[in-house]
Amino acid sequence: MLTSFLAIGLFAAVVIFLFALRPNHLLEPIKQMSDSFVSFLLSSTSEFGSEMTQEGLEDQRLWRQRRLRDLHLTTPKPATSKRRKILVLGGGSGGLVAATQLGINLGKDHDVILIDRRTEHIFMPAFLFLMVGQRQPKDVVRKLERLEQRNVQVIQAQIEGIDPQRQEVLLDSGPISYDYLIISLGLRTAPELIPGFAEAAQHSWELEATLRLRKTLESFQEGRILVGIPPGPYRCPPAPYEAQWMLDTYFQERGLRDKVQIEFFSPNPEPAGEDRTPAVWMDAQSKKRGVQQHYSFSVQSIDSQRKVVKALYGYELPYDLLFLVPPHQPAQVLLDSSLVETVAGIRVDYDTLMTRWGNVYCIGDCANMPVSKSGGVAHQQAEVVAHNLTVELTGEGEPTTFQLHTL
Ligand SMILES: Cc1cc2nc3c(=O)[nH]c(=O)nc-3n(C[C@H](O)[C@H](O)[C@H](O)COP(=O)(O)OP(=O)(O)OC[C@H]3O[C@@H](n4cnc5c(N)ncnc54)[C@H](O)[C@@H]3O)c2cc1C
Question: Which residues make beta-bridge pairs with 329?
Answer without folding.
Answer: 188
